[in-house]
Amino acid sequence: MTDLNVYPVRAFQDNYVWTLRQGNNAAVVDPGEAAPVLAFLHAQKLNLTAILNTHHHADHVGGNAELLEHYPVPVYGPYDDRIPTVSERVREGDKFTLPGFGIEFEVLEIPAHTRTHIAFVGAGMVFCGDTLFACGCGRLFEGTPAQMHTALTKLARLPGATRVYCGHEYTLSNIKFARVVEAGNAELAQWEQTAAALRAKDEPTLPSTLAQELRTNPFLRCSEAAVAAAASKHAGHELSEPVSVLGALREWKNSF
Ligand code: ZN
Ligand code: FE
Description:
It contains nine helices and 14 strands. The protein has a six-stranded mixed sheet, with helices on one face. Strands 7-8-9-10-13-14 form a six-stranded mixed sheet. A hairpin with an 8-residue loop joins strand 8 and strand 9. The longest helix is centred in the last third of the chain and has 15 residues. It is globular, with a radius of gyration of 18 Å. Bound molecules: zinc ion and fe (iii) ion. Zinc ion binds next to loops.
C-alpha cells in the first residue's frame, strides 16, 4: 500500500483543510474555500476522490460546491439540511471506505459546537472539526456543557496515540488560557515553547495526539482537582461536577 500522507492546506486566517493523499489521490476534510485546495491539487498533480465535512459552518463547507464543479466526488457529512452538497449522510457508528484510499473511517456524533457535528476516525487519526482543539474546545453555539462533556469524553476514549486533526490553528492562545487554569502543569509550559517555536516558523502545531490532550487540555481535565479549583474560583462558587467545571471554563475562555 502506498504511503498515506496528510497535508495542512490553509484557508482563511487559521483554518486547516486537512488533505489526505495516497498515491495520486487526495481527499479533503472541511474545505471552507476551494481556491487553496485547487491550487494544492494542481501543484501536486492530484485527483480529488472525496470531501468530508464535520459540521455545517461556512468556514468548513464553503468550498464544497466549487470543488464539485471540478471533481464530482462523494461528499460525506452529517444529516443536516444546512449542507445541501452532502451526498453521503453518515451517523454514529457508520463506517465507509474512503474512495481511492485503502482506509476505513468510522463516524462519531459529537454534538455541542453545532447540533449535528461529527468526527471521522480511522487509520490512527481523528478529524474532529471544531469540537476538540489542541488544548481547547469549540464554542457552544448549538449545544450545552453536558453535550460538550459527552463529546469530549467520547473522543477521549480513542487510543492515546490517535493523531488529532483540528479545524483551526488555535493552539497558542488555548495554551495561554490553559496555563492560567492549571499553572502547575509543567507539560503546558513545555508545550507552549514547542508551539511558539513552530508558529515562529509558520508551521502548524497540529496534529496533536489524544494522549497529549489528556495531559494538557483543561476541557478534558475537568475532573482534576486543580482545574475544578480554578474554575470554581473564577465562577465565584464551588463547582464539583465535571460538567459544571466545563461550563465555567468555556464561559471563562469566551471572555479571556
Ligand atoms: Zn465551526
Ligand atoms: Fe470553524
